[in-house]
Amino acid sequence: MQYVWAFVVGGAICVVGQLLLDVAKLTPAHTMSALVVAGAVLDGLGLYEPLIKFAGAGATVPITSFGNSLVHGAIREIETNGWVGIITGIFEVTSAGISAAIIFSFLAALVCRPRG
To answer: Given 10, 26, 106, 112, which residue has the most CB atoms within 10 angstroms?
Structure first.
């Protein structure tokens, strides 16, 4: 049943993104930004963590999880390190994912030949 809920929640997040593209006529960049901000706001309100516990990968894979990670890291670090923790918490939590994306993109560029 966990797979079903992950599929439903992840799909619902993607449907919201698609509606922003099609109905609201937002650009892909605006849609992505809106989803990141939505994830950040939901985490700030304490609603994203219960969603992650309920849906698992359905809530952690979409771009909304990046906003959640930014706010979650900042809140955790501000409690321990004060106001400086806002910046360090953001970088600490998200650096592994960003580094992995850069490394795997570079490796893919080495393996694949672009067609021009």
So the answer is: 10
